[in-house]
Amino acid sequence: MATVKTGAFIIAQTLNNCQLFGGLTDGQREALASRCSLRTYAPGQLLCAEGQPGDELFVLVRGILEVYTTAPDDSEVVLVRRDKPGEYLGEQAVRRKEETKRTASVRADVESEVIVIPKDVFQEFMSAEGAILARLQTEGMRQAEQLTLVQKSAMYRILVAFDNQGGWSRTETFADGEIVFGQGEPADRVYVILSGEALVTRETDGNVQTLAVLKEGQCFGEAGVMDRAPRRATITARGPLTTLSVSGSEFMQTAAVSPELHDYIASLRRVYSGIKA
Q: Does domain 7-147 have CATH number 3.10.100.10?
């Protein structure tokens, strides 16, 4: 005989598989499930909109959800896609007691079913879960960095969905005068500036020439990776510098499946011919 799954059963089963609630006891998860509801969204329908107050957390039961924002040129940037049962969205807007506005929009890519957890219920059950709240805070800081880069870096707008899918970027800080990489070194990473400035210099016959000063949102290191060639210049922090970087292999994998990234790199080469590192 086939098993008929009720709404309560689906909610309880999905919450059991949700990493966010792994620290709760079975009894706590059962109590939480009793105060949640199921909601179905049609393809293209919004779950929440950027700029609106956030009063619900969503946990995916089935379907595909897209998180997206709008770039300064009014283009739409998909930040991440969620397609695994138990994945959650909207957590940053409900983790604080004060009213918090959504920093991105969420829509259903196909017909999707989610568990809806009201903000007051989430706060009631998670207020004592210090480790989970700390993790959410860390995730929120990373998301804020990504949103800043999406607004300021055309290249990162292309990379962000791949980054969120694979989690392969890392943040690095450099002190004033510290060398990020030197001329002639192997090209193994691509960098986007989160904050600060980077000085680009090249040495020829013992003479050091300043080629450019790169600022927040600009990238460097992609030319050497794309050409599989040694670094053509030295990059030095000009004051405190913070970067987000990805490995050369991951960058090349993305370029191979993203015509937008390939075209963007081609345009950079034309603009910065002979300058890029």
A: no
pLDDT of the residue at 103? 92
First to last CA, the chain: 65
3-state secondary structure of 186: coil
How far is 6 from 20, CA to CA, in rounded Å?
Answer: 23
Give how far the C-alpha of residue 152 lies from the chain's centroid of Cα atoms, to the nearest Å.
14
| Separation between Cα atoms, residue 262 and residue 161, nearest integer Å | 16
Measured CA to CA, the distance from residue 95 to residue 73 in angstroms comes to: 31
The pLDDT score that the predictor gives to residue 272 is 57
Would you give the DSSP letter of residue 72?
A: T
The parts of the chain modelled with pLDDT lower than 50 are 1-5, 275-276
- Mean pLDDT of the residues in the chain: 87
CA distance 85 to 78: 20
Collapsing DSSP states into helix, strand and coil, what is residue 4? coil
Distance CA(78)–CA(151), nearest Å, equals: 13
Q: Give 80's contacts (C-beta < 8 A, 6+ positions apart).
A: 66, 67, 160, 161, 164, 165
Domain ranges in the chain are 7-147, 165-271
> Beta strand 219-220 with 65-70: parallel, antiparallel or unpaired?
unpaired
Is residue 148 within 8 A of residue 72, CB to CB? The reply is: no
Looking at domain 165-271, its CATH superfamily turns out to be: Jelly Rolls (2.60.120.10)
The per-residue pLDDT for range 74-116, each reduced to its tens digit, is: 889 999 899 999 999 999 989 888 888 999 999 999 999 999 9
- Whether 91 contacts 136, CB under 8 Å: yes
pLDDT of residue 3: 41
List, in sequence order, every residue forming a beta bridge with 201; answer none if it has no partner: 210, 234
pLDDT score at 203: 93
